[in-house]
Amino acid sequence: MPDRVALFATCVGDLAAPGPARAAVEVLEQMGVTVEVPAGQSCCGQPALNSGFPREAAAMARCWVATFEPFPAVVTVSGSCAGMVRHHYERILDGEWRRRASALFARTWEFTQFVAAYGEELRPRLEDTEQGTVTYHDSCHMLRNLGERQAPRDVLAGIGGVRLCEMRDPDICCGFGGTFSVKFPEVSTAMADRKLDQGQATGARYLVSADAGCLLHLSGRARARTAAAPAPRHIAELLRDALAASRGQGELR
Amino acid sequence: MSGTPHGRSRALNGRERVRPRRPEWAAPEYPPGAIPLPVLAAGALSAPGSAQTTERLVGLDRELNGPGWSPEMAELRERGAAIRRETLADLEGYLAQLTGRVEANGGVVHRAATPADGRAIIAGIARDNGVSMVVKSKSMATEELHLNRHLEEEGIEVVETDLGEYIVQLADERPSHIIAPAVHKAQADVTELFGQAAGEPVADDPNALASLARDRLREDFRTADMGISGVNFAAADTGTLTLMTNEGNGRMVTSQPRVHVAVMPVEKVIPRFTDLATLLPLLAHAASKQTLTVYQTMVTGPRREGEADGPERLHLVILDNGRTRLPGTRYEEVLACIRCGACQGACPVYRTMGGGHGYGAVYGGPIGAVLSPLLADGAQHRQLPFLSSLCGKCYDVCPVKIPLPDMLVDLRADYERDRRGGRAARLAWRAWAAAWTRPLVYRMSLRAVRAADRILGQRLLSRFPGARVWTRTRALPPLRRVGAFRAWRRKRA
Hints:
By secondary structure, chain A is an alpha/beta fold.
């Protein structure tokens, strides 16, 4: 296990959802890892790329590579951003930058991948059984650009007192899609509703995901709509709470 | 339909009694771009029956795409993908070989650079042969030509004989899916439609409805002067045109009338007849998880001496419409497409909009969002690549591994590079990248957002351009927490 990692909090973490990044730091520290948060980090560049601006995305990508290169490992709380680094950096960078990006990707982890690989010592447990049923939403980019389906499920299975209740179609897009969510808001929202409805049908208390983008969209919709929905929740926060509970330190939200 | 020729066709009997209830954008002649794409997409989403179609499509997707690629089929997929790329590496060479073989077999080959050329060629063939009625089997290439209307204007009756195509023809619509043109129609819709055409109520039963169509079409197969078909694969080494159908109408169309016109876009050519051993099962699997379609019709020239049936004349029309510009570009692989429609049914955006009409193009769904803007007449479709959440499922199901999600991203860049009035957006993104690649400026921008939230509050913030659209259906995240993670880190340090 790398004993020192850099955490990539992502722009969503800075702007809208600080919780997952903080929870990830707490979990990683409990695993005995020294966590650094490089001050130079901002965004992986995905918003620019998906909006049709690959040159600007490439500028962000070079910045990202230069920022995280000095560290033995990188952990991020967004499957989509990790997918961007893995799949798109080699498409928008060339020459030396492409080589450096791919070398850096080889030691870049999505949070649940890192925990699934090295967190066997953790003994997370949620005592409050009311919190125990969760359903998991596969983020498209984590699933397809990163190829990761299993790690988050392994992490959930490792939390005592948690029961994963799969929804009918966990791998169907939630409709966020970055720029898509504001260019085609009706279609995007209808897709979020389908996701929330399926989550609700499982009876789960939380709709857990490992992607800050999806969660931003799903919690925005869950709060605005009248129909009931499970609370969207980042997996790092659920895990952190379970660790805190198993150590008897409370701080359940 | 008044003004369209009628009289001989039995299948189109009563067509004038049908009261179309389609939205204007579902019409065969919907002028691309007439409605702004975001409005069109929202309209398709809320159109009557759309939600029902979504449910049917979701069910179908689970059934077809749930199991994924078995090891055997994954191997077939690799072989098919390789064959298609081999074809594209020498597209003109294979087309020349195909042309030579079809001519040697007694057929006539035409190259149509544009849809207008294609229409003129086919109308010319019809005139030369004194044609007044045409039976058609399924062909998306003829949709690109808007062929039916054009032939009707020439006084020729055109009858679609694929059941789904027949349904959309009676309803005065265009196909909403490449292989399942009427996938947006519920059984009750078809019952009502057929009842109107028949002038009397018909039984609301799938078998009865299919029988009714079969009865009405049978006579037309026998009496039509000309058959027009698509082509699934054209083998360059033998000149064999292969059509795959489940209803056998392809066989009727290519064997009964005295003239057969086959229409294909350039990319339907394949190097060898033996490649069909890979591509036929691959297409059938990708399209409908069949081992093979019920009929494989293989046409190698017109009727020969001593043969009992087949057309006297065979014409092959090869349509370009901008495609031959693509080899050698980053969009080359879109021509690997074998038109299975898998990416459409697998696409959550396509499904949510209740099918393909909401794309406003001949081809909807992921393949349509990529192909439509690349065609020579695709200028009106250049925004289509944005109508995708980039979930990537289309690539997962594609039998020839076309990187559709990457192409969608690249086409967005092309659009932004070329569009008029895009200067403000370009400058804004440039400024964004300049700011966010500088740590200090990035942190200042975080502070600015927090200040804006404190001073203006969420209600005022929600009126900003991007936020306004977002907050119509979604709550804004609590911006007072902007930068909270960094502050927490600082406090602990």
